[in-house]
Amino acid sequence: MVKAIINGTEIQVKEGTTILEAARLVNINIPTLCKHPDLVADAGCGICVVRVQGTGKMLRACCTALEEGMKITTHDPEIVKVRKNVLELILSNHPKDCLICARNNDCELQRLSSEFGIRDAYYPLIVGRKKHKHDESTKTIDIEGSKCILCGRCVQVCQKNQNVWALSFLGRGINTVLSPAGEIELNDSPCVKCGQCSNHCPVGAIVEHDETQKVWDALSNPDLFPVVQIAPAVRVSIGEAFGYPIGTNLTGKLISSLKKLGFKGVFDTNMGADMTIMEEGNEFVHRFKKKDNMPLITSCCPAWVDFLEKFHSDMLDNFSTCKSPHEIIGVLSKTYYAKKHNVDPSKIFMVSIMPCTAKKYEIHRSEEMFASGHQDIDISLTTRELARMIKQSGIDFKNIEDQKADSILGAYSGAGTIFGATGGVMEAALRTAYHVITGKELSKVEFKQVRGLKGIKEANIDIDGTTVRVAIAHGLANVDHLLKEIEKTKAEGKPSPYDFVEVMACEGGCVGGGGQPYGVTDELRKKRAAGLYKDDESSKVRCSHLNPAVIQVYKEFVGEPLGPQAHKLFHNKYTK
Ligand code: HC0
Ligand code: SF4
């Protein structure tokens, strides 16, 4: 342990704790633009300078460890002046069009400029700087290079946390630009569209590709029949845009708001998650019995699908062929629902509300996404886009009455709702796999071994005397590590160390998705996940195969899980 003094308060911290972290422990907030709790410090912005008393030194708090006996001053008039000066220098190289910026009112640079009372652009805008790119090529996330403050957060999250290496800084000095290597378009780079860069950007340099206008247009088109579905993780994060405590489950208010916006059918992706489990749980049991292409790897995360196709195509046979839940709701809405409600499927305009940017890519990624004969999902919006639409519509979100989703694509089990947290798909699948293997029901449905934020989780699950070896990875760098282990045993001709593997591209699973409200930390991921586990606990039905709506859809329309109709509507192919 190290003892030191910060602003006159004695503090004892673990060796290696930075001054920034130590100050936060005693409720002192040192401003920073480059240090994010998910990332290692790299002293990119220089705003976090503090003074070491008795030495005259000013050090960067984000990357300086507190040492024994140090006396630190974090705030005094001179330090504030230095910080203000750093901000002014950043602003000298930053457009001042806050009013029309995608991060207006939700920008860390704007907030700091306001807190520091910056009124003049003290330094003139640097001229002759290399022109930055505006890149919308992925149609999932847009890069507005002129807004980049070179903090390095997006580059680090893409390279280190996701191990994708799509983004980098090119050039030197004032000509440094944010770009994929070779200055190619992002869509031609290894980018998997996870959106983590946009979620970690403090300003408006990388943002989701906004498609709200297309949805407004559809809602006001009398020829269309607009319907919508809500992903598991959206219900526990949308409240952050309306001042609710993190993790509050707002399913009822979300449904009412979507109805008020004009959607004629409001469905729940959680029900699609239950359908996915019926297919994937059965797929697992079949493969497990035959020891065929083990382990089975989940495939409902589209950034992960893109990553696997790009970087581990030798493992494609291990991938579950089952579509993701929102695609299942999409195809059911334009087939089963359309028939039942006598609506022309070509008029149905299906919108998915997702915590994810990659879902914007998934909806047209292959011909299977047109299984209804139309594009099964027309538009996928992020949580952030929906929050803006609700605000634009004048809906009093806090006071709106709760409503229920529409029958029959709106009823879900507790297993469906936990999909939004890392380990949730695995837990939901195990609940149903137990039933398929044993013909019995679990007395205790929780598998807590697969929960939590550890990057790679492993467990041996006992199913009535049979051991199922499972692993869960989230955050693509962790996934890559796990896959390399599996590939190694495969190359050596040894049996797979796992039977079933769950993968989510984003840390924490979808609760930490790239399209979620900004400011993600592990603390926040835990609270959002806790909201989903609470929803599961309070659900009357907690296993997908016991969801009466699922049973009815199979009985009336699909037939058997993995049967011909299920294959036609609910399964995918992958390409090398
Ligand atoms: Fe997810 Fe999903 S759980 S990917 O994370 O499987 O985006 O929330 O909607 O489709 O259900 C995201 C979240 C979903 C899908 C579900 C899966
Ligand atoms: Fe990298 Fe993901 Fe951003 Fe693409 S979307 S640049 S993979 S962080």
How is this fold's topology laid out?
Layout: E1 2-6, E2 9-13, H1 19-25, E3 49-52, E4 57-60, E5 71-73, H2 77-91, H3 108-115, E6 134-135, E7 141-144, H4 153-161, E8 168-170, E9 177-179, H5 196-200, E10 206-208, H6 212-219, E11 225-230, H7 251-261, E12 265-268, H8 269-290, E13 296-297, H9 302-311, H10 325-340, E14 348-354, H11 359-362, E15 379-382, H12 383-392, H13 414-417, H14 424-438, E16 456-463, E17 466-474, H15 476-491, E18 500-504, H16 522-537, H17 548-558, H18 564-570
Parallel strand pairs: 1-5, 11-12, 11-14, 13-18, 14-15, 17-18
Antiparallel strand pairs: 1-2, 3-4, 3-5, 6-7, 7-10, 8-9, 16-17
Helix pairs in contact: 8-10, 8-14
The structure holds 2 iron/2 sulfur/6 carbonyl/1 water inorganic cluster and iron/sulfur cluster (SF4).
Structure description:
Keywords: 4Fe-4S, Iron, Iron-sulfur, Metal-binding, Repeat. This is FeFe hydrogenase HydA (NuoG). Residues 78-117 form the 4Fe-4S His(Cys)3-ligated-type domain. It comes from Elusimicrobium minutum (strain Pei191). With 576 residues, the protein is an alpha/beta fold. It folds into 3 domains: 2-75, Ubiquitin-like (UB roll) (Roll); 124-208, Alpha-Beta Plaits; 213-570, Rossmann fold (3-Layer(aba) Sandwich). It has helices at residues 19-25, 77-91, 108-115, 153-161, 196-200, 212-219, 251-261, 269-290, 302-311, 325-340, 359-362, 383-392, 414-417, 424-438, 476-491, 522-537, 548-558, 564-570, and strands at 2-6, 9-13, 49-52, 57-60, 71-73, 134-135, 141-144, 168-170, 177-179, 206-208, 225-230, 265-268, 296-297, 348-354, 379-382, 456-463, 466-474, 500-504. The strands form 5 sheets. A 5-stranded mixed sheet has the order 2-1-5-3-4, with helices on both faces. Helix 8 packs across helix 10. The radius of gyration is 25 Å and the shape is globular. The relative contact order is 0.12. The model has no long low-confidence stretch (mean pLDDT 95). The structure holds 2 iron/2 sulfur/6 carbonyl/1 water inorganic cluster and iron/sulfur cluster. Residues 141, 157-158, 162, 164, 166-167, 191-197 line the site of iron/sulfur cluster.
